Amino acid sequence: MNKKILILILFPIILYAQDPSFSQIDLNSMYTNPAFASYEGNTKIMLHSRNQWNKINENFNNTLFEFSSRVDLNKNNKKLQTAWCYGIGLLTEDLVIFPELGNSVFIEKQELYVMPFTLEMKITKNSYLSAAPMNITFRKYELKYENLVFSDMIDDFGNIYSLQSSSFNPDLYIHNNLVSDISSGIIYTRHGKYRSTKSNRFNIGISLHHLLNPIESFSGNNDEQAKLPNKITVHSELYSSIPKSKKPVIPYFRILFKHETYAKQQEIIMNKTEFGSTIFFNRTNIEFGNLFRIIKNESTLPFFQTWIPIIRYRINNSNHLYILSYSYDGNISKSDQNLQFTQTGHTHEIGISIYLSSGNKKNRTCAAFEDMSNNPLYQ
Predict the structure, then answer these.
(1) Between β-strands 82-97 and 286-297, what pairing exists: parallel, antiparallel or unpaired?
(2) What is the C-alpha end-to-end distance of the chain, expressed in Å?
(3) Sign of the CA dihedral running 295, 300, 302, 305
(4) For 170-206, b where at least 16 C-beta lie within 10 A, e where not — what string?
(5) CB 114: neighbour CB atoms within 10 A?
(6) Closest to 85 measured CA to CA, from 124, 28, 37
């Protein structure tokens, strides 16, 4: 068995991978912050898929499914409004490794995360606090070994025999044990003070991930390098209206920001910053915008990596809302030290979000919107 291949199998996550990220940072995903459980009110279902860098590997896909809902705890108390929010999510990810000899090694990761308790509380007349003290995560890894080629499979004439003829033992490298982890998060949301600005909002949140620093290694070793780094995510959004006119072209806009820091052994190993804005067109169901991504690794200065155009279409059916979304990652890095578009190719990201009974008068308020029945997203 080739030792170079074996080393990469044992330490795939350390050398080549990080947490998957989705470019549409305004999805209010529980994967970003567990306090986003049922943030927009009542029941939310989201399915999102990302196909990244198809020139490098067309199978490098991420798929995210989330379900969240809520239970109002004191409906009759007008002064203190609280809700118990909960949710569950499933992330599947294909990781790829490129050994020096040209073999491709595929790792499939499945991640199940459960938000058993998120407390949403109205703390003032126009502000909310959403807190998720503990999000429980379970991960499972599996080696996809169909394309592996080992030295004992090649004869003196260069012919390659089947994997079954080699000494490779696939059972040794299938990680069937679930790896557990914990994350937590908190979000502060503030709405406009006056009746005409209640639909406006500002939120800011922080989430902590990989608090248990679990091991990601098929060998099961306890090496410090095999531990997942801590991740701190800070995010913010300003959702506001342009001053009223009879027929505004852009009635609402959003300004978005997210920053992720990866740290291991109290040293920062990577920073990722995303920012941009989206706008809504009056009397249409269309929203579009642009985001930018800046990356800083241990060995590089900050550089613009990606430009991300986004377009969305909303379908309002009775009390339910369906949002279809698409974004495209355009790699704009110009440095020879970083991956460029000619090397990476296209990255597409599509998704659908379903909000059940979000416009129902019985569910009039939540952290995201002070008055759901007058919320412009559901008109």
Answers:
(1) unpaired
(2) 63
(3) negative
(4) eeebebeeebebbbbbbbbbebbeeeeebbbbbbebb
(5) 16
(6) 37
Contacts 24+ apart (CB under 8 A), 303-309: 303/333, 303/335, 303/338, 304/332, 304/333, 305/331, 305/332, 305/333, 305/338, 306/23, 306/330, 306/331, 306/332, 307/332, 308/23, 308/274, 308/276
64: its two tokens: 């995210």
Burial 341-373 (b: 16+ CB within 10 A, else e): beebeebebebebbbebbbbeebebbbbbbebb
Question: Which residues have C-beta within 8 Å of that of residue 203, sequence separation ≥ 6?
Answer: 187, 188, 189, 190, 236, 237, 367
User: Which pair of tokens denotes residue 89?
Assistant: 């999510």
Q: Are 118 and 34 in contact (CB under 8 A)?
A: yes
Do β-strands 347-356 and 43-51 pair in parallel, antiparallel, or remain unpaired? antiparallel
CA torsion 10-217-272-250 (nearest 10°) is: 110
CB-based contact 186:132 (threshold 8 Å) = yes
H or E element in which residue 97 lies: strand 82-97
pLDDT given for residue 74 in this prediction:
79
What is the DSSP pairing of strand 320-331 with strand 267-280? unpaired
Q: Which two tokens stand for residue 216?
A: 């990601």
Please write the tens of the pLDDT for every residue from 333-362.
Answer: 665 555 544 455 678 899 999 998 755 555
Tokens (6 digits) for 29: 């995903």
Backbone φ and ψ for 196, nearest 5 degrees, come out as -75, -10
The pTM score is 0.83
